[in-house]
What does this fold into?
Amino acid sequence: MSYTYDYPRPAVTVDLVIFTIADDDLKVLLIRRRLEPYKDCWALPGGFVDIDESLEQAAARELQEEVGVTNVYLEQLYTFGAPGRDPRGRVISVAYFALIDAERQRIVAASDAADAEWHSVFKQTKPTKQGKLAKLAFDHKQILDYAVWRLRNKIEWTTVGYELLPKKFTLSELQRVYEIILQKPVDKRNFRKKILAQGQIVELNETRSDGAHRPARLYSFRKK
Amino acid sequence: MSYTYDYPRPAVTVDLVIFTIADDDLKVLLIRRRLEPYKDCWALPGGFVDIDESLEQAAARELQEEVGVTNVYLEQLYTFGAPGRDPRGRVISVAYFALIDAERQRIVAASDAADAEWHSVFKQTKPTKQGKLAKLAFDHKQILDYAVWRLRNKIEWTTVGYELLPKKFTLSELQRVYEIILQKPVDKRNFRKKILAQGQIVELNETRSDGAHRPARLYSFRKK
DNA sequence: ACAAAAGTGTTGCGCTTACACCCATGG
DNA sequence: CCATGGGTGTAAGCGCAACACTTTTGT
It folds into this structure.
């Protein structure tokens, strides 16, 4: 079966920037390419949009297929369509970003099969002198940079930060998420005031002990 | 000549939300459809993306073809791709918004030929009891609403407001642009303080008389 | 008892808001 | 001289940033 059109049509894909927090860093999920072009480079997960699914459905499906998670925070980022961005032909790619919390992240690690790997966005993993992140295929570096920029803005205005944490968390953990994403230290007292003032999290009657110090109170996010 | 693919491909278009200020209102350029579907409805101008041009080039080309202007403010908005949005088949549309200043706007009025017309976004033009804006084709109402939302945000953070005015303008004119877009009154003194503090406009040695009152000082925008 | 992270208030400053009168002009 | 929009300053309140010590636990 094949399809014929009077005019050439670009292929349309979705590409995913999937973030999580681990090892005290922001991580992005990348897939090692086994084929040309950009063989052996790392790339964002993505794939073609089916003819009868919405863009968001396509993104959610990719998320399901490639990393086995559903029902995560997903947001359209931007559409990249420069003619030369894929050497195989005209490909227009609608980029999404997704946030995966620390619990689900283990699921991803499990389905690790298909050459998918979490890469540090800011830290360099190994003490080599190389740049922070492996070279990315296509224009995926640009997409990633844009996603980081968007995440940084968004975290200041909204409550997306909570999407990166498990259901129960401490305020110190939440603060650390902000510090990692913004890449700058945050004042503890001001941070707590700001967060509590938003009225979006609930104090639980529960604490967590974690070493030789005072246990931390747990909170949870109040989804509307 | 025709093109054959193994899998069905969506068509890709750009749609334009072209804004200007006129008659003390925000106006959007709409085109009357002469063909089905949505015959005789109003629609956003738009068209297919050529196989060898970037999305932004396609948007700029449409702007040139449909309304005859070049070199205007143009920004990607969002990509709409629900399967049923065009009854003729799968069409993915990358929406852009453009801002046209009062000078260029006359050019548009001139090339008025092709059923293009400026429509008030907020006011109702005629004293009928109809809603503010004619019914739009496809999901164009949704696109327009999103564009208005984005413009409102953007005007508070950036200097896009200047794109809607001619090179020389008075502070009252600029203030009126803000009031029209935000649909709320703005305090004159605070507005002037804020705008001047941004250091983005230059006071000219020129004034403009306009009726039986003190002439207004002219300013111009300092593009970086 | 000590090390280590949790938790907690106050102050100063800058930005935003509210607000009212004189100025320059045309008719 | 009067109507019309142009132009100007000040005071109060609010949100944000800076800053240090006590509490609770494990070892």
Remarks:
- Residues 170-172, 188-189, 192-193, 210-217 of chain A lie near DNA strand C (CB under 10 Å from a C1').
